[in-house]
Each structure stands twice: as C-alpha cells, then as structure tokens.
Amino acid sequence: MRIDLHAHSTASDGTDSPAELVRNAAAAGLDVVALTDHDTVGGYAEALAALPHGLTLVTGMELSCRLDGIGMHLLAYLFDPEEPDLARERELVRDDRTPRAHAMIGKLRELGVDVTWEHVAKIAGVGSVGRPHIATALVELGVVPTVSDAFTPDWLADGGRAYAEKHELDPFDAIRLVKAAGGVTVFAHPAAVKRGRCVPESAIAELASAGLDGLEVDHMDHDTDTRGRLRALAGELGLLTTGSSDYHGSRKTCRLGEYTTDPEIYGEITRRATGAFPVPGAGGATGA
Asked: What distance in Å separates the CA atoms of residue 65 and residue 71, rounded to the nearest whole number?
C-alpha cells in the first residue's frame, strides 16, 4: 500500500480542488490519501463525492498551534467533525486568518511592496486566506523567486518583517480536543528548521505524555540525519512515525506520494480512531 497522510486542497492553501486532489492521488498510484487542510473540514464533502475506486480517503485537518511563542502544526485524523468544542476552536483559528492577512499586507505595503488585498484574495479563491497566498502574490509581483523564499525573516517567517500573529491553539489543548472528538494526533514536520524556530525535544516529550500519538518524520523539510534523529526520539517516547508529502498542488514542489506512511502505522492510526473511519472510494464524479 502507498499511503500519504498530509495533503491540502483549495479549501485552505492548496491549488487542487478537493475533487482534483483525490483524482490526482489515484493517478499518482496512492491507495490512501489524507485531506488535511488548515483549520477546516470544508473540503470533505467534495472529496468524498469524487473519491475514485481503489482510493481510500482519511479525513483530517492541520491545526495551527503555538507553544511558548513557537508556531507548530498538529495533524488531526479521523475525528468527529461535528464535535462542538473542536469545531468552535477551529472556527476561531480560521476566522482570524482574514484580519491577520490584512495586517501582513499592510506591513508589506509599508515595506514598499505593491501588494493588495484584492490580489491575495483572488489567489486564495474559495480557500481561507493564509501566508502561502500572500507568498504567491510576492512571487507574482517579482519580489521573491519562489513561495519558499517568502518564508524568511525578511518577509513572512515567524517574527519576520511582515509577520502578524493570529489566534492559535495551545497544542496541549488541541491534543485534548482532538482526542475528545475521537481523533488521532501527529506533530507535523516537527524539525522543519527552514520555517523558523522549532519546538524543542523536551517539549515533544511533554506532548507525548499528554497524549500525542505520533511524529511526521519522513517529510521534504527533514534531511536524512533529521529523520534518523526523529525516528529515534519517537522510539524513545513510544510515538508512531508517519511519512507524507505535505502536497499543496503547484504551490510547492512536493509531489503526492513523495513520502509515505508504513501500512502498519496506518493500521494503528485507524485502530486508535473512534470519531470517524477511512472511506473507500465508490467511484466519484469525473467532472468538477
């Protein structure tokens, strides 16, 4: 089995619609794909309606968290999307994205960048506006060559010149909320140092004690040594290890299935989940 547990659609900051995402996952030879848009479950219905035969969909979400001033992302899988406490918190995070984007655009204009809200909103389309959409605008304006180059201290990285804070969850609260909704939690790209400061390993141990289920080890932002170190840490802490593409369509260079999760680990994730279950494809619509 080929299993990719981290992918984004236009419901957040990907460039594939949810329907396109599942069709592209099947075309890439995946057996299982997880839809993990940022702080939203808005792409579920479209993805499920278009799900091809032979592909299983894992419903999920990537929650924005902050610990001791350091941003981190928590992948949540197979939770009940209607559970009210978790739904309330994800909406708070999502709703704060628009004023935050306005604040970052204002800072960029003060730095002499001729970016507008209308430009960024057009890029975001139906998705919730986030930093990747602003980064794409900077690429289109010729300010930086790639989206990744926008995530530096000069521009949009945490603490950067054009950075603005938003409402984010305490990860201990996030773990509690996801577990109460019957879900499973994995710390996304925990050592992606190119993105900014990372949560220390001592804090990962505390998160494990609080119920964190796993670490996303095999990821494009982790080199070979980092993957080895994280795998050893996961072993010490009794955490599951996953691998994923973190696919964003054309917004990033990663490909669906570039990194994958071991089927035994996937099986353990599904065994632990009680809020929702993987959905096998029944053959969805070919249009849309």
From this structure: 6
Among 248, 274, 258, 178, residue whose Cα is nearest residue 216: 258
From CA 119, how far away is CA 129, in angstroms rounded? 11
What's the whole-model pTM score?
0.86
User: pLDDT (tens digit, 9 = 90+) per residue, 27-68?
Assistant: 999 999 999 999 999 999 999 999 999 999 999 999 999 999
